[in-house]
Specification:
This protein is of the alpha/beta class and 615 residues long. The protein is built from 25 helices and 19 strands. The strands form four sheets. It has a six-stranded antiparallel sheet. A six-stranded antiparallel sheet has the order 4-5-6-7-12-13, covered by helices on one side. A five-stranded parallel sheet has the order 16-15-14-17-18, sandwiched between helices. The longest helix has 30 residues, at 449-478.
Length: 615
């Protein structure tokens, strides 16, 4: 993967502002440690940092191509096209010629050939910008599921964009300001984020499945893909077979790489399935053993306690599947001090407070993987798409009339200062965001109330919860210069599974039943029927002690920028007696008492390090 950035200014000569472009580009150096490039014309500036995966010797960006009438097009691109070979052959049949083997050139030529409609032909993950010099127009697009990020700003008459907020914030005309909505995102929605919302005052996010055109007449956004509800005509066996075919094809496509590749293995259904498919592909192509990686924490075996959200530990299952598939497995382990020390690194990678130790451990994990691989396959998104989370199967959650991963909103609101609560109205804010999401659901005519309920839950998870995990995976991995691919986000698979009726999705009376059925023969039966367990977190009480201590340090420092926004007395009472904090998650499945303290510490550091002005 890579990092992209740049801006448009119709009222100035940008060739005199190369220093700003260099500064914006260099903020993305971790995303692209292999090379850097910039390109400037009078009104358009483009920057790129490269992580070489396909055709490392070529493919430097920004990439320039001349058209038949000597007009030039320039692209900066972050992503991978998994059907680049097919597209290249089709373009060659139409008379187009190529000078490299990289997918960047395929994407640029595809845009030159088909314009915006090239997006309909792409299978991959991407965020890119193409400058058309003749038309004086910038075209930007983001992949269908939002695996790759793309932010933009229209501050002070400029149009700026970047893979991460930090690139845009590095421009001298874009201040680090946050308003009421931004604070509501942080204090009541976070670590999730409303799609399209950039949290910072002048920052927005191009939503998945959308593209935009920037020219002298303004900025226009268009939708080129969205979930569509259609009748499902396949029976259970046909459905399972098609799911398997789609997943096998997605995995096979995403195993193509000119650099070392591995899989992330937790011993759960999703990661084990991808690892098994990778092993099969490696055996067929005689590529040797697949390398697999897992993460755990010091003394987790001693302190783990099963609960609804995490019913069993991963370690025995990792050993089981690694031995069964004969992978070259790498066990990575971190201690409490590693996690607390990495909280600031994780914050800076995301440019916002995040999933605390879950982010920190993933960042450290990716740094270790990077020592042996450049590309990894991950089972991210299967639970959102196939309905694996506990809240899909809880009547209380289904009837809660709010985001099921954020049912502790009242508790969170009670921890805010009266002044902030009165300004941002946190409960009204999250209710409004929920109602907006529900209003978007494309229901199918003739659905029963139950079918509508399950389609709504699926939509919320795919469009509101999954982006949080994709953001986490992108920022933490790219901060380590590691590309992580997510085969379950193949849009063909998502489109098909979206329309599978709930009774078929849960065939066998199991969560993700249709996926389990599709994987029969791919995995051993005990792995195939294992209860879902999320990404591991530390259960060591030392972590709770460490983050509650850091919370008290923030409270004891009168200069802490967090203090005006919180009810310090209530939070101090929790931090002094941390065992009193609830073990039930206040966000998602993993974030409970320890993560509450760590999150507020991250908010404090974000306000301080990013010099946030509240306006």
């Amino acid at each position: 993967m890579c990092g992209i950035t740049g801006w448009i200014n119709w009222n100035a000569d940008l060739t005199q502002q190369s220093e700003s472009l260099e500064r914006m580009t260099e903020t993305l150096a971790p995303r692209g440690p292999d090379a850097s490039g910039t390109w400037i014309t009078t009104h358009c500036a483009l920057g790129h940092r490269r992580l070489s995966v396909i055709d490392p010797e070529n493919g430097a960006q920004p990439m320039i191509r001349l058209s038949s009438d000597d007009e030039h097009f320039v692209i900066v691109y972050n992503g991978e096209l998994y059907n680049a070979l097919e597209l290249r052959k089709e373009l060659e049949s139409r008379g187009r010629q190529f000078t490299t083997q990289c997918d960047t050139e395929v994407l640029l030529v595809a845009y030159m050939e088909w314009g915006m409609s090239c997006l309909d032909r792409l299978n991959g993950i991407f965020a890119f910008a193409v400058w058309d010099h003749k038309e004086q127009r910038l075209f930007l697009a983001r992949d269908r599921l939002g695996v790759k990020p793309l932010f933009y700003s229209t501050v002070n008459g400029l149009f700026l964009f970047g893979s991460e907020p930090k690139a845009i914030l590095a421009h001298p005309d874009c201040p680090s300001e946050v308003g009421a909505d931004g604070l509501a995102e942080v204090f009541i929605v976070g670590p999730a984020r409303t799609p399209g919302h950039g949290v910072y005052k002048h920052l927005s996010e191009l939503r998945p499945g959308k593209c935009m055109i920037v020219d002298r007449s303004g900025v226009r956004t268009r939708t080129y893909w969205e979930l569509e509800s259609q009748p499902h005509g396949d029976d259970v066996e046909q459905t399972a077979q098609h799911v398997r075919e789609l997943l096998e094809d997605a995995a096979k496509r995403q195993l193509i790489s000119d650099v070392p590749i591995c899989t992330l293995l937790s011993g759960g259904l999703d990661s084990s399935a991808l690892t098994s498919l990778a092993v099969n592909h490696y055996n067929d192509t005689q590529q040797g053993r697949v390398h697999t990686y897992s993460v755990d924490f010091t003394d987790n075996d001693k302190h783990f306690k099963a609960n609804t959200f995490q019913p069993n530990a991963d370690a025995p299952w990792i050993k089981r599947i690694s031995e069964h598939l004969n992978t070259q497995h790498h066990y990575i382990q971190f201690d409490t001090a590693d996690l607390t020390d990495a909280l600031d690194d994780a914050l800076r990678a995301r440019d916002l407070p995040g999933m605390t130790d879950v982010d920190a451990s993933l960042y450290l994990f990716c740094k270790e993987i990077k020592k042996g691989a450049t590309v990894a396959l991950s089972g991210e998104a299967a639970d959102e798409i196939f309905g694996g989370y506990p809240w899909f199967h809880s009547d209380e959650a289904l009837q809660s009339a709010t985001f099921p991963w954020a049912r502790a909103s009242k508790m969170r609101a009670d921890l805010l200062s009266p002044e902030l609560a009165d300004w941002i109205k946190p409960l009204d804010y999250i209710d409004a965001r929920y109602e907006e999401a529900v209003a978007e659901v494309p229901h199918l005519q003739g659905e029963t109330a139950r079918q509508q309920q399950m389609r709504t839950m699926s939509y919320l998870n795919i469009t509101r919860f999954m982006p949080t995990l994709l953001d986490r995976k992108d920022r933490m991995s790219m901060a380590a210069g590691l590309e992580v691919r997510v085969p379950f986000c193949d849009h063909r698979l998502v489109e098909y599974v979206w329309n599978i009726p709930w009774e078929i999705k849960t065939s066998g009376d199991r969560e993700k039943g249709i996926l389990r059925r599709a994987l029969q023969g791919v995995l051993p039966n005990d792995v195939l029927t294992r209860k879902k367990s999320p990404y591991p977190k530390t259960h060591n009480p030392d972590y709770l002690a460490a983050v509650s201590s850091r919370m008290l340090e923030v409270l004891d420092d009168s200069s802490s920028p967090l203090l005006p926004f919180i009810n310090a007395a209530k939070i101090r009472a929790l931090a002094v007696s941390p065992e009193a904090s609830s073990n039930l998650p206040w966000f998602g499945q993993l974030m409970s008492g320890p993560q509450l303290f760590a999150y507020l510490v991250q908010v404090n550091n974000w306000l301080k390090h990013y010099r946030i002005s509240v306006v």
